[in-house]
Amino acid sequence: QAQLVESGGGLVQAGGSLRLSCAASGRTFEKYAMGWFRQAPGKEREFVAGIILSSSRTYYPGSVEGRFTISMNNAKNTMYLEMNSLKPEDTAVYYCAGGWYNGIQWTEAGMDSWGKGTLVTVSK
To answer: Are 80 and 22 in contact (CB under 8 A)?
Structure first.
């Protein structure tokens, strides 16, 4: 399995920006897709952004589209999530994950490698 380690979380004011990183090691070549999920207090984990490694095609839910950008630096085996125009409702623990996209929906079940998460707090 791949090992994933997130970094870059922190406290930011509403309207600000943060960039999260996810360093991948191990059997990363087996992964078809990678993505970011988040879990806010008291809520279920939700999909935030995804990328297909072979094509670099990206996917976003409507709640973050236009504000978040996912990218991959293959030379560094590192995935990024650039987050702009942050809102208090973006506050959550952000997880990077690797696995499979079924062509219809990005799901937790499709991911078989997970990082431990990094906390993002957006103040009003």
So the answer is: yes
